[in-house]
Amino acid sequence: MTSQNANSAASSDKAGGFAATVEDHPLVKSLRSILKEIDDQYERERQNFVATLPNTSAKDRALAMLKSRHHQRRENYVRELAALLERTS
User: Fold this and answer.
1) Are 35 and 78 in contact (CB under 8 A)?
2) Composition bias, kind Polar residues: at what positions (predicted)?
3) What are the structural domain ranges in the chain?
4) CB 53 within 8 Å of CB 29
5) Burial class (CB in 10 A: 0-12, 13-18, 19+), 84
6) Positions of the chain with pLDDT under 50
7) Which of 12, 33, 42, 59 has the most crowded CB, counting CB atoms within 10 A?
8) Among residues 40, 24, 32, which one has the least CA distance to residue 78?
């Protein structure tokens, strides 16, 4: 393949949409969706605790435990997403 043919093929890939970005990869989209759902659920639970629990040390502990659980739930997904993005960049 000549240099001109290679350039032509590369430009037609971009124009035809064959060269998808990493952000468009289904696994990246899936991991981001899972992380968003985890974050949304955490925020709903946190708001519920804030609204319903009396201002005591128990409320503070409950919120701290909720936050810790939130970070634990996200950890593997964040690690996998970072590894995927690193491999594809």
Assistant:
1) yes
2) 1-11
3) 21-88
4) no
5) middle
6) 1-19
7) 42
8) 32
